[in-house]
Amino acid sequence: MKTVIIVGGGMSGLAAAVTLSEQGMRVTVLERQDRVGKKIYLTGNGKCNLSNKNLSADFFVCDSPGLVQNTIKTINHDSVLQFWNQLGVLTKEKNGGIYPYSNQAATVVNALVQRCEKNGVKIFCNSFAEKIKKAENDSFIVRCKEKAFRADYVILACGGMAGVYKEESNNGYRLAKSLGHTVNYCYPALVQTVTSENLKEIHGVRCDGTISLFIAGEKISEETGELQFTEKFVSGIPVFQLSRYIKNAFRSKEKVELVIDLIGQSEIKWQAELKERVKVFEGYSLKSFYNGILNEKLNLYFINKANLKPDYLIGADVSAQKVISSAMELLHWKIPITGVNSFKNAQISTGGIPCQEVDETFHSHVVRHLYITGEMLDAAGACGGYNLYFAAASGIIAASSILSKINNI
Question: What is the per-residue pLDDT for 389?
């Protein structure tokens, strides 16, 4: 009987193990940590956002959109629900996201592990794959510190660089490179951005806004939603989404900037509204003028930013035109970005194995009978279940491809 070794016991590896073992395949999972599924527990704030009903390649930043498009075509929304239902995981939808009914990631991990155990999958934890080499008859030898394993097929499902970062977190990429693959530079994504601007005054503030990412003066993308500020970080789901596009900008020393619209009106309309507001508040303080526009801390921040004082009287201490000019910045507040938070704080990493180096079944173009799945590939999904979907779907597709090859022999 043909055997498969899966290096990595995360979502992608376990989904592949279930799919293979359901058809009676001999499967071994090698997990370097003390238990499988650790990163699954962190997804969706512990509620495990499995997928999204709005599956589209538009929600991925990928060097080969065709791979994502084919994945969604092969494993669509109904297929995702069917996979989880067959494992006994009841699902529900919330704002497009697909979650287990229990709202607990443990439900998902337990279901995967229990099915693997039932089907005879051998799971070895604390098993660090040090080396993979090709053997005779297209087979592989996977060598761990204490034991060597032989297999006819290997699936690399080691994940990316995100999470609790240690040096061995890049082990999957090291193994892939040793087999002839290339690795795009990895960067934290779905993560907070670091700014050189002092935001101490608005630490802890949350507000709604539209935020645009500019790299080297070019607008790359735009998101709308709740933003969060600390002394050094600009955060929130919209920022997380935009962080996927930054990639190599800092390495190439390009200017990175966030431009935030806190008002959501056209310049003409906002300017007209400010003119009327100045008339109403003539003789009043700037603090009174700004009251009701934004969060109080933000109001004071923008007053100070314009080198004004909250108790300045409009028309006496500061001109109406100066007030209008300072308040116009609320439409295009520019914040310089000097970096992103660490891999330890990131939900995913960008970069990794170029998607062009695998085919539509995730089979390597470089090494026969080798598959590479999930976050190891350079495909960064948006928040909302897209990355966990891609991990599971790629594992299922790779496993199905192996089964097809074996059945056709």
Answer: 98
Residues in the chain predicted with pLDDT less than 70, given as ranges, are 164-169, 409
Q: Which of 157, 228, 154, 166 is nearest to 195 (CA)?
A: 228
Task: Give residue 164's pLDDT.
Answer: 56
Residues 224/210, Cβ–Cβ less than 8 Å? yes
| Secondary structure of residue 158 in the 3-state scheme | coil
Phi, psi (rounded to 5 degrees) for 105: -65, -30
| pLDDT on residue 169 | 59
The residues with which 134 forms a beta bridge, in sequence order, are: 140
Q: What's the pLDDT score for residue 409?
A: 61
Distance in angstroms (rounded) separating the CA atoms of residues 299 and 274? 14
Q: Note whether 53 and 72 are within 8 A (CB).
A: no
Are the C-beta atoms of residues 134 and 349 closer than 8 Å to each other? no
> What pLDDT shows up at residue 26?
96
Instruction: State the pLDDT at residue 84.
Output: 97
- What's the confidence (pLDDT) of residue 248? 86
The DSSP 8-state label assigned to residue 368 in this structure reads T
- CA 364 – CA 337 distance, rounded (Å): 37
The residue to which tokens 């790299």 are assigned: 215
Cβ atoms of 207 and 195 within 8 Å: the answer is no
The per-residue DSSP string of 272-308 comes to HHHHHHHHHTTTSBHHHHHBTTB-HHHHHHHHHHTT-
Residue pair 45/105 in contact (Cβ under 8 Å)? The answer is no
First and final C-alpha spacing in the chain: 12
